[in-house]
Amino acid sequence: VQLVQSGAELRNPGTSVKVSCKASGYTFTRYFIEWVRQAPGQGLEWMGKIDPEDGGTDKARKFQGRVAFTVDTSTSTVYVELNSLRSEDTAVYYCARNEGGSLSYWGQGTQVTVSS
User: Fold this and answer.
1) Among 22, 47, 23, 44, CA closest to 34
2) CA 90 to chain centre
3) What is the distance between the alpha carbons of residues 80 and 59, in angstroms, rounded to a whole number?
4) Model confidence over 71-101: pLDDT tens digits?
């Protein structure tokens, strides 16, 4: 099982960023993918999840209206897009596979830096 994420991003405040997570080594539609981030000096923060089978999503209240999770089953890839970026969004973003309630496999992380 592998989850491979896209590379580091640098964005200005007020813009958007889209991070990808490409899955391999298992049946892609069988497991939810969750997104978690970690800001400098902070703990892990859950952002939400997506069901690759039907595209259904669940978002943390904090990100409602500012985040979108999408899936491309043809390439076994899920995406998180965060809009209206601010400096507090600077963090490492991770995707992880949910297996029976545990995040059993993780992507390598994508550094997103928001700075003018």
Assistant:
1) 47
2) 14
3) 11
4) 999 999 999 999 999 999 999 999 999 999 8
Give me 1's structure tokens.
Answer: 């099982």
Separation CA 69–CA 34 (nearest Å) = 9
Q: What is the pLDDT of residues 34-77, one digit of tens each?
A: 999 999 999 999 999 999 999 999 999 999 899 999 999 999 99
The length of the chain is 116
CA distances to 44, 45, 46, 91, 106 from 61, rounded to whole Å, are 16, 12, 10, 18, 23
* AA letter at 58: D
- Split at pLDDT 50, 70, 90, the class of 4 is very high
CA–CA separation, 26 vs 18, rounded Å? 24
CA distance to 51, 83, 86, per residue, from 71 (Å): 8, 17, 25
Tokens 């200005």 sit on residue = 12
Maximum distance among all Cα pairs of the chain, rounded to whole angstroms: 41
DSSP code string of 30-72: GS-EEEEEE-TT--EEEEEEE-TTT--EEE-GGGTTTEEEEEE
